[in-house]
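Subject: design request, 97 residues
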């Protein structure tokens, strides 16, 4: 995989060092542009909405993202590396407890 580099592994290790939301906000704001942060937040919202079986048209209306981006997130949700599924399931399990 083109993105699976030593540098990105080091980035993932750095992310795992974050202890709370405030630290994550500080780190990611230094790492990413505001537009990138907004885009990533919207993609995560799309994944959660797709998991809740919300229609593409409703998702597009709420997020402002294109149907192409929504379809891409849907593809990653169902056929990707299961990263979305991992976190979505963990969130659901936390809510049940």
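Subject: RE: design request

Done. Sequence follows.
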């Amino acid at each position: 995989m083109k993105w699976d580099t030593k540098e990105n592994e080091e980035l993932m290790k750095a992310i795992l060092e974050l202890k709370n939301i405030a630290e994550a906000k500080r780190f990611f704001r230094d790492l990413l542009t505001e537009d990138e942060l907004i885009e990533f937040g919207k993609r995560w919202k799309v994944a959660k909405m797709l998991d809740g079986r919300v229609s593409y048209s409703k998702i597009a209306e709420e997020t402002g993202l294109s149907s192409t981006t929504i379809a891409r997130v849907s593809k990653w949700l169902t056929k990707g590396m299961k990263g979305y599924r991992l976190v979505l399931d963990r969130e659901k399990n936390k809510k049940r407890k």
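The radius of gyration is 15 Å.
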